[in-house]
Amino acid sequence: MSLALALTLSLIPFASAATFDVSVGAGGELAYNPQFVHAAVGDVINFVFHPKNHTVTQSSFDTPCVPLHGGQNSGFMPVAAETTALPNFQFSVTSPDPTWFYCQQTNHCGRGMVFAVNPPAEPNPHSFKAFQDRAIANNGTAAPSASSAASSTATDTYITPPTPEWQTATATITMPSSTWTTIYTSYAGAAAPTPALQPSDHKIIVGADGQLTYSPANISASVGDTVTFEFRSKNHTVTQSSFLNPCLSQAETSLGTQIGFDSGFQPVSAGATSFPTFQIKINDTVPIWGYCRQGDHCVKGMVFSINAVESGPNNSAAFQKLAQRNGTSSPSSAGSGTPTSSSGSSSPSNAAVSISPIRGIGSVLALTATVFMML
Ligand SMILES: *[C@@H]1O[C@H](CO)[C@@H](O)[C@H](O)[C@H]1NC(C)=O
Ligand SMILES: *[C@@H]1O[C@H](CO)[C@@H](O)[C@H](O)[C@H]1NC(C)=O
Ligand SMILES: *[C@@H]1O[C@H](CO)[C@@H](O)[C@H](O)[C@H]1NC(C)=O
Ligand SMILES: *[C@@H]1O[C@H](CO)[C@@H](O)[C@H](O)[C@H]1NC(C)=O
Ligand SMILES: *[C@@H]1O[C@H](CO)[C@@H](O)[C@H](O)[C@H]1NC(C)=O
Ligand SMILES: *[C@@H]1O[C@H](CO)[C@@H](O)[C@H](O)[C@H]1NC(C)=O
Ligand SMILES: *[C@@H]1O[C@H](CO)[C@@H](O)[C@H](O)[C@H]1NC(C)=O
Predict the structure, then answer these.
(1) What 8-state DSSP symbol labels residue 320?
(2) Which ligand number lies closest to the CA of residue 181?
(3) N or C: which end of the chain has fewer CB within 10 A?
């Protein structure tokens, strides 16, 4: 280093501090220009806000799009399109270390609208480029929201992403029926599997009065009890299924060896006086779910349950509702009377709303989301 340069550098702090002008969103671009500066302690960064509604918000390198606790923040600076007196915000450099900034307006950070003071030069894992990449990686695909639409104008130069993220969340509601196993060893909320002192037989009438019903359609039975199904009309079955796939036999859905019980078709002629029966033995207190395999009987609600936990989301009414949709849960109608918000709208502004039922409904929908996680 030449003596002259060394002298010059050492004199700078004593000379007047430099001011760097940085334009924010000039030309409608989601960018600071320049994107970074190298400044000395005492220098001032003068951010000049162009039309639209940006911020200059300090963050950390690690979380580019999250405000730094105790950091600087211009707040939102809405600027009308025809404004000539542009507002500004000044940041005084107090440290030679890198300082990181971003725009807090929805989606801007994820589109790379970030800024830095004194970032290490490339190649470096903490370079400006690395910071910007991190912003896009962390926040680039997420966070659709109402305000993104509001803040976007015809002057925007970026392309709106075609797929709002919440559609992915919706997709998780559809369960792959073929991968669910119905084998249990225990069941939360169920009674302890203590055998009844006096095993009893429970009778369920199948197709009473020509109806597509089991009556009763939900019973409690103790370990050691038996349940006898009596077929009174038409041509029904008693087929074990699972809560999540009410209208598919366990043979079709189970990953394991358990295929469940199935009475097979039991045709009953119109004037019959004796009726075929089918009996099962209750081996534990695990809920048992079943349906009639004939035609569309199941989707017409011809299902039954034994030892369903009526106080929980997997109750007999929820099971029947699921059957009536043939196992395809939809956010608005799942559950056991839990009020649910309608959530099918494709408007990005409803994104947050459409996700919330997954957590909030506490019923069939919540359960299907859980199952997806488990698969
Ligand atoms: C970026 O993502 C983080 C983590 O999901 C979130 O907390 C933050 O609010 C997001 N920032 C912006 C500007 O969207
Ligand atoms: C600026 O953006 C913020 C955040 O999106 C919003 O709350 C505010 O209303 C906007 N201001 C104007 C004038 O559009
Ligand atoms: C409901 O049933 C599913 C599958 O049969 C199970 O994974 C889930 O834990 C059950 N939920 C409750 C609250 O018991
Ligand atoms: C009972 O239903 C099954 C399935 O639909 C059919 O294959 C069978 O022929 C029916 N039996 C009588 C006696 O109608
Ligand atoms: C109970 O166990 C017996 C003997 O293993 C079996 O045949 C029967 O299907 C079981 N009952 C149920 C409801 O799974
Ligand atoms: C119910 O859904 C299953 C699997 O998606 C399908 O195979 C079956 O035909 C459906 N049954 C009715 C009655 O729609
Ligand atoms: C369950 O049983 C009760 C009492 O027998 C009955 O009122 C109710 O309708 C049944 N629920 C379903 C879904 O069948």
Answers:
(1) H
(2) 3
(3) N
Task: Please tell me the pTM assigned to this model.
Answer: 0.45
Q: Are strands 36-37 and 266-267 parallel, antiparallel or unpaired?
A: unpaired
Q: State the Cα–Cα distance between residues 6 and 237, nearest whole angstrom.
A: 94
Any idea what DSSP says for residue 360? Answer: H
Q: How many whole angstroms from 312 Cα to the centroid of ligand 3? A: 9
Give the three-class secondary structure for 117: strand
- Residues 170-179, buried b or exposed e (16+ Cβ, 10 A)? beebebebee
Mean pLDDT, residues 129-158 taken together: 61
DSSP string, 158-201: SPPPSS-THHHHHHTTS--GGG-----S--TTPPP-PBPSS--E
Residue with tokens 């470096």: 124
Query: What is the reported pLDDT for 285?
Result: 85
CA atoms of 320 and 311, how far apart (whole Å):
15
Alpha carbon of 78 to ligand 2 centroid (Å): 7
More confidently predicted of 153 and 328:
328
For ligand 2, atom 12, the nearest C-alpha belongs to 78
Distance 188 CA to ligand 3 centre (A): 8
Q: Strand order of the sheet with strand 32-33?
A: 32-33, 19-24, 44-49, 88-92
